[in-house]
Structures are given as structure tokens and as C-alpha cells.
DNA sequence: AATGAATGAGAATTCATTCAT
DNA sequence: GATGAATGAATTCTCATTCAT
């Protein structure tokens, strides 16, 4: 439950404290990316962070909190990258394209982040045995995509389809492209992203366009 | 999801031996589906198979071989279901639709198989730390889809696109639909499958059609 | 949870199994007696039993079950010693004296048992933080003593007093004598037991006697 | 429960220093009372004292010194309560009754103190593994009781018995009454104390009385 | 063919203590 | 005088595997 239980507020020395936490979270990301979820022990994470298990335990309530931070941090980072690129587009089709391309671009530059989120989100469970995070694509992402798609339909940009299905499909397609690149580094995610944009453009735009 | 034969595995008393192995593999599938890859210990699997750990160890060289059998068996089963449905179609578009629909239909009827393959394929690693199976969509599936798509392009059914990208996207879309259903059982995979067929039809067919 | 989870009944090889469990319980008794409850780790117990921690974990579901066995076994052993001595007496006063003397005699011959029960009963707690056993003197003992005392009152052997208070006092007096002996080995529990019998005889017998 | 003065403990800034120490000792008492000796960690004690572990470590040489203070302080407090009540009695029988009643009255009003002393005295050990305090009833108490009893015997108030045995028995009886109350709060320690006085009166007074 | 017993490695976590500031 | 950060030892427990029978 966080270092000590100081009577007053939350953090005590935000400067050092937060730096250390970040360093450990980064080590956790790299470790999970490299050896996978099941093999990512606190010992290994600590080793990569160049500390001992107890330091990790000091800064995080437990493995659970650490792994949650991994996901939370990656979600926040990626959203900070994607959001302005979305905002720069006015049409629904433009936003959809920006979403696909910025997502792929972000992860293309951060291979470990990609592997870590996928691994943690797909495996991390609470004590009751249920997955702690939404499987594969998180709910808020689907909501966001759903809104873009629905807006496009209302404005006549897109044809009639089930927005949730297409949202799921877009999400998975992005992961697919990234997965193909991870499995075979000669794959170019950028050009695949462009192909994906074309593909979904055809799949979604209304007849007349 | 994978065209290949099931065999391998040296036998001792083919008759009883194989029954026992099957029973244990089934228990492994259910266990992984229920508690996830990381929590699926031999003890838990043995418990569900109503035996003891040593029996499991006796019939399989180790946990590795057992989990490989899990994937191998599910690939074989699903291929036995899908293959005839593919063969019944003559056009590339028909084959593509049959692929999508039969894949989803198979897993729709076998939730545990779906969860188990995804979990094992995404997590199981050899001693050197590399994934034992191709991540998310295995190579032979992509090869098969790729051939269908290329044939369709050659025959003018499909427009010009990167067959590998579309193969990856189709594969992932199927997983996406199934994932949506697992997360929310009110989702109807059959109608989603139909939507997916439409979506990819639009995305792939050549201009004039 | 016991070794494995064989499909059939409880124990598998009662002969070896039970011997090993007994050996470990004995080691636990000696360890707790020697180093106290808080310092009695599974490692230390295993060491004294000339095995490894994992053997202990194999035969007992956990430290909890082991320590419960410690208490259960000592209660059973001591009762087997005391019961016939109680039965040999017909009067309530005789039974009371026999109870005091046989209790002290039993523990006098088994110093480690005495120290272990006291330590475990006074310290062992369940996850919710409550003591697992009745504190200091267990309920069934008080019930038994209470019945003897009440019988004596009904038959006119004993004066009028609160049977529960006297039961508690007798119980504690026995522990006191044994504690005095443990702290100072020159104390003779046998003669103290005799003194105690006299003391409670005077304290309980009805006026006229 | 123990005639002795509280002092010791080197001071730095007597005024604030001593207040802080007292506060921490109180927190230790409550913690031990609530969770037991083995679970009373410095972290938990600090938490209840609304500070951090390092503050505790700063004010006390270590956990050992803190727990010793717990016992010392309770002994001093209880003696301050009991002593005047003893002094008010002139006869040995009166002093014995006053001892029993004031002891029970003190602890009746301070449940946490009772639980804490019993727990610490029965468990706390020095590095060599020996109990730091005399087990269950400490020596000075027995000496005091012994003197009362011997005086009573010399003056003809009490019959002939081993004063040490009776001292031990009285001590344990008091703990027994308090233990019964702790286990079952409906028990009334005051009336049990009165019963105890009667019981020991009968058990100790000389024949003719 | 089958299995109960054993085992050592490694898991997460808690602990009392120290130290630089 | 006070404390946040760090740390290494030790805790219980689970694991996959091996072996004698």
C-alpha cells in the first residue's frame, strides 16, 4: 500500500519517489516484453531495474499494483500520443484513419510497450480468477471508436453497419499488423497501416462516395 | 484454425493409452480456459482429470508436451470442421466467407477450446524464452488465407491489396468477434460473422462488382 | 488438501503416510517447545524432522494444519492418559483429585508437549485474527470439570460455588504448577499436585465434612 | 502486577521525548492486544501510533526495547493501582483478598493491558532463545504474595501449606478469571473475584476459624 | 502400467533495521 | 530531532519433476 503510511497526505518526496516508481515500471515493461507474463517474476523485474525485490515491494503494494501501473502507464502514454492526432481531423473517416495510423506508429516506436500490454491485459487476473482488464481491446477504446463510427454514419460518411463490430475489427486489425511486425521485423507497420486505412475506408464508406 | 494432422506421440498400449491422453488433454483445455495459462498447474489439471500429477507426468513427457498437445488437438479438430466447408465453395469470395463463418461457428460451440488456444499460443514458451507457437494467428492459417486471397485476385474477384495484410486482418477479426462474445455473452457470433463477411466483401472485391 | 487429490478416499498408504506425519508433528512439538511459537518456522521444524520444507508442505496443507495437528494430537494423547484414571474414581472429590494429579503427571513426563500446547493455543490465529483454539484452557476441559463439580454439589460432597469459576481455577492452577516446574526444575510437580488436591479439597468440600 | 518503579530509558528532550515514547508504547499495547504477539510488527504498531516505522526505531533501540517498555509500563501502572489497596489492609487475609480484587479490577478496566502483558511475557525472547520475562507470573509478584501468606501463617491466620504453591495458584486463578472474561464478555470479573476470595479463604484459613 | 512420496528451485511478501539527509 | 528510502534475510507456499515400488 505504498511506502509507509505517513499520517499526512499521499506521496512524501514526489521527486525521488516518482522517478523510482517509473524506473521500476519501465523495468517491468521490458521484463514482461522479453520473457512473457508467466515468467516475469518480481526477482527478474528487480534485477533489470538494478535493485532488489524488496525495493520493488517498498514502492508498490505488490505485483498486482505494479502490473496495473504497467497497463495504466502505457494506456496514458499512448493516449497522449494519439489524442492530438485524432483532434487534428474533422471528418469521421479522417479520425478513423488517424486512429489506425497513430496507434500503429506509437507501438512501432515502442515494441516493449506493445508486448507488455498485450501480455498483461491478456493474463493478469484478480484473486477471484477473473481478468483484471478488458480482454484484448479495452472498453474505452471501443467506446471511442464506436462514437467516431456512429458520427460518421449520422453524417452520411459511412454506410450502415454495426458500429461495435467494426470497432472490434479495427482494434484487432491494428493488433494484427503489430503482431505481424513483431513476428517478422521485415514487415513495415507504416505501409501496413496505410493499407489498413484503405481497407477500412472501402469497408465502411457509404455507397455513393 | 490450422490445417495439419494430429498424430505424433509414441504409444505403449494404443487402446487405453490414447483414451487416457485424450482425457488429460481435455482436462488441460478446460483448466487453461478457466484459470488462464499462468495458473494452470499440473496439479490443477490432474485434479480436473480426476487423477494425480504423477499420472499426467507418466503419460506426457512434461508440461510442455501436454500443452503442445492441447494446441495440436484443437488445431486438428477445428481443421476437420472447417475443411469440408471450405471445399464446398468454388469462388474465392465464397471460400473467404466460409472460412470466417466456419471458424466462428466452431469456436462458438467450443468456448473452452477458444480460450485455451489463445492462452497457450500467446504464452507458451520454450526454454530459450521464445514463443513455441506463432503468436495470435499461426503461419499455416495465413498461408491458406493468403492463397485464397491471391487466387481471388488472379481471377479478378478481388481488388489489388497485400494478401498477407488482409489475411492477418481477417484472422484477427475472427478472434475479435469471438473475444467480444466471450467478454459479453449476449453478443451473437453468428450475426457478427455475417457482418464480417459483408465487411470483408466490400473491403476486398474489385471495383466494378 | 492432503498429499495429492486421489480420486478415491482419504489416505493412500496409511502405514508410511501416518508415520511421516507423526514424525513431523513431533518435530513441530519439539521446535515450538524450544524456540517458541513466533520463531517456529517451517524451515526449523523441517530441519528438526531431518527433512526439507517441501516434505512438510507435502504432508500438511500448510502451517495451520500442522499446528492444529500439534494441539489435536496432544489433547488426544493426554486424554488417553487421563480418562482411565478419572474412570477409576467413583466420588466427585476422587475424580477431581485424579484430574489434577493425572494432568500434572502426564505433562511432567512430557515437558515439550506442555510448552507446545500452551504456546500454540495461546498464539495460533486464523486469517481473521481470532485465536483458533480456546484461550489457555479449552472448553471441553471446562465442561468436563464443570460436570464433576456439579455432580459433587448434587451429591452433597461439595459446597455451593460457581462451578465454572472453580473449573477455570483448577485448570489454571494445574498450569501454574507446571509453569513453576518449567521455570524452576527443582520444583517437584508431584508433591505440588498433592498440595493442590488438598487446597481444592478444602476450597470445595461442604461444611459438615 | 509487579512492584517496581518505571524509570530507566535515557532521555534527550525529556518533555516531548517522553510523550512520544508513551504514545508509541500505548500503540504497541493496543496492537499486541488486538493481533497477538507474533503479528505485532513495527509497521502495524507505527500505523496505529499514526507514525512511520523509522520514528519508532528512532525512539527505541529496537523492537526488543519497545516490548520491554510495554511490560515495564503495565507492571508499574498496575502496581500503582494495587499498592494503596494492599496497604489499606492490616490482616494477611485482608491483603490477600485486596490483592485478588484489585488485580482483577485493574485489568477489568484495561482489557488491552491484560492481553498485551500476557502475550509479551509469554512470548518475548532474547537472542539466545530464552524468555525475557518470567513465564506467566513474575517472580516479584510471587515474592510479594509469598510474604503475605507467610505472615498469615506466622500470625495463625492461615493453615500450614507451601506458600509458593499457593502464591502460584492465586496468581494463576486471577489470570483464569480474566481469561474467562476475555473469552466470554458476559462473565462478570467482579463477582468472580468475590468468589475467588471465598475460595482461597476456605483453602487457606486455619482449621478452627 | 501406474502412483505415492519426495524434493529442490523459485515464487511473493513481510520484516526489523540502517542510513543519508 | 525526525524520516523517507533502501535493504537483505527470512517467511510460507506452489511448482514440475523424479524415483522406488
UniProtKB/TrEMBL annotation, chains A, B, C, D:
<feature type="DNA-binding region" description="H-T-H motif">
    <location>
        <begin position="41"/>
        <end position="60"/>
    </location>
</feature>
<keyword id="KW-0805">Transcription regulation</keyword>
<dbReference type="InterPro" id="IPR001647">
    <property type="entry name" value="HTH_TetR"/>
</dbReference>
<protein>
    <submittedName>
        <fullName>TetR family transcriptional regulator</fullName>
    </submittedName>
</protein>
<keyword id="KW-0238">DNA-binding</keyword>
<keyword id="KW-0804">Transcription</keyword>
<dbReference type="InterPro" id="IPR050109">
    <property type="entry name" value="HTH-type_TetR-like_transc_reg"/>
</dbReference>
<dbReference type="InterPro" id="IPR036271">
    <property type="entry name" value="Tet_transcr_reg_TetR-rel_C_sf"/>
</dbReference>
<dbReference type="InterPro" id="IPR009057">
    <property type="entry name" value="Homeodomain-like_sf"/>
</dbReference>
<dbReference type="Pfam" id="PF00440">
    <property type="entry name" value="TetR_N"/>
</dbReference>
<feature type="domain" description="HTH tetR-type">
    <location>
        <begin position="18"/>
        <end position="78"/>
    </location>
</feature>
